[in-house]
Amino acid sequence: MTQKVPVGNFTVGGDSLVIIAGPCSLESLELGLEVGTKAKEVCDKLHLNYIFKASFDKANRTSIHSYRGPGMEEGLEQLAEIKRRLGVPILTDIHESWQAEPVAEVADILQIPAFLCRQTDLLVAAAETGHPLHIKKAQFLAPQDMAQVVEKCREANNPHVILCERGTTMGYNQLVVDMRSLVLMRSLGCPVVFDATHSVQMPGGKGSSSGGDRRFALPLARAAAAIGIDGLFIETHPNPAQAKSDGPNMVPLHKLEYFLQQISELWYTVEQGMGKTDIDWAEEA
């Protein structure tokens, strides 16, 4: 049975699809508020639960010269203000164990980046805050390998784990999405989220930065919704060409409603018609 994870006044793994959306990195308070306000408006209209996402530091940028964000102190101030003004839960990522406690004072969900999902000390420190954890499956891991990741968090007395699919490395600068991973990770008893925009990233594809192809974000999100997900993760920006990180794979903010309308209709059709997909049905054959 999938563990329902409480976030604010709703649950991830409940009866409504959860949308995690925002800019890749915090570029300014004004941008964060613009994106968050629009995303909340769209989610309210479509009866979707909304979580604002943005990073105060992008520690794994391709180049040392790439923009990383405002840093933890200023970034947490911005996130706290966005939370206060919009009245929505906040998700942000941490990269080092010592960040867990101060970040948990502002964020409602701590995110563990894909490249760091095996880091035991980081996982334990995040789990010990008692906050829900959003853990991205590494590009180099099989979905069943996330069982050990989940166990580390549970051993630290935190069962509130959400697992996220964001693509698997296939050759150089390419990711491929194996939709079976959504089913397999849910079988670990965790709600699952599909990251529609990082899944179309081309890591390091531009030499000194990552590329991407946003054309495939919507088709892949449709496929994930049809299989069965508890949440959808999207990075969005009013002008992706000018975004300071991950622009090529981001959804333009003015197209967010079009994007989520399709996913919402498909998700509710699947939920009402069949319920969540699982692998147990085949055991009777």
> What coarse outline follows from CA principal-axis ratios?
globular
Low-confidence stretches: none
Main sheet specs: 8 strands, parallel, barrel
Mean of pLDDT: 92
Major sheet: arrangement of strands: 3-4-5-6-7-8-11-14
Strand percentage, roughly? Answer: 15-25%
Q: Could you tell me the radius of gyration in angstroms?
A: 17 Å
Order of helices and strands: EEEHEHEHEHEHEEEHEEEHEEH
Terminal Cα span: 21 Å
Extended strand count: 15
Q: Assign the structural class, choosing from mainly alpha, mainly beta, alpha/beta, alpha+beta, or little secondary structure.
A: alpha/beta
Q: Report the total helices.
A: 8
Could you estimate the helical fraction of the residues in percent? 25-40%
Describe, in plain words, how this protein is organized in 3D.
With 285 residues, the chain is of the alpha/beta class. It has helices at 29-46, 72-86, 100-104, 120-127, 146-155, 180-186, 217-227, 256-273; strands at 5-7, 10-12, 18-22, 49-53, 90-93, 109-112, 133-136, 161-165, 168-169, 175-176, 192-195, 201-202, 211-212, 231-237, 251-252. An 8-stranded parallel beta barrel has the order 3-4-5-6-7-8-11-14, surrounded by 6 helices. Strands 1-2 form a two-stranded antiparallel ribbon. Strands 9-10 form a two-stranded antiparallel ribbon. The longest helix is centred in the first third of the chain and has 18 residues, at 29-46. The radius of gyration is 17 Å and the shape is globular. The two termini are 21 Å apart. The mean pLDDT is 92.
